[in-house]
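Z., the sequence and structure:
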Amino acid sequence: MPKVQGEKTVVFIKRSILYVAITLGAIFVLFPFFWMVFVAIKPEGQAFSLTISFAKPLWKNFVSIATDPSYPFWRFFINSLIVATMGAALTTLFCSMGGYVFAKKDFYLKEILFWFLLSTMMIPGMMFLVPQFAIVTKLHWINTYKGMVIPHVASVFGIFMMRQYIETIPSSLIESAKIDGASELQIFFRIIIPLSLAITTTLFLLTFLFHWSNFLWHLVVNTPDSPKLTLPVGLALFRGQYQMDWEKMMAASCFTIIPIAILFLLAQKFFIEGLTSGAVKE
């Protein structure tokens, strides 16, 4: 009996240490979000004060952001929503097609071409900034949605993800569909896409997040008076020459995380399944 009691004590101590570590990790990860809300509800000029008065209107900064006619927050919001949705949808579609071809089709120099594409991932993204800007300028795509979306539609990482997953789909399904007279488009949209829904959703979420938070490219391809400015660039307008309006910037930031949170909550099942697919080999 003392031995059994000792084992229970060891298990209890291990679980306690694990829960404490998880709790500390959660606090560390969530601290920026708590701090963002904490600053957003403070009066003007008290962003770095550790005290808060609940007697004052807490939502003043949120109301100011949403209703201030001199700060077109909702225009920035809608522009970001359009750019992120278009970018995620097009990237997911083209990467799925590319992944399907590299996974299930045979053509000359397929493996060499695939590894060549993978090798381009070693080039820093900043190296593409100037050539992409030159092309967008030549095409007169400055201050347009397509100027912000199309240069980032091609994603080698997305093709790699889709190829690895589609390879696990039995080729016998595709051969059976061909015998039944299905075209390539029918095979792609009626067999490949439904069977790879988890990884497709994961790629859509990751790409949406990339476009939603992209600041540098949206700043480069828009002039200061552009009607197509997005939220990341709009948030930077709170930065003045001598000071920053931290309270309103944090209030606007609280609004910006709402679409991302809703999207992840709705698709969390597919997202987790997509991330863990292939983790266990049977």
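The chain has a mean pLDDT of 85. The first helix runs from residue 2 to 40.

Let me know what you think.
H.
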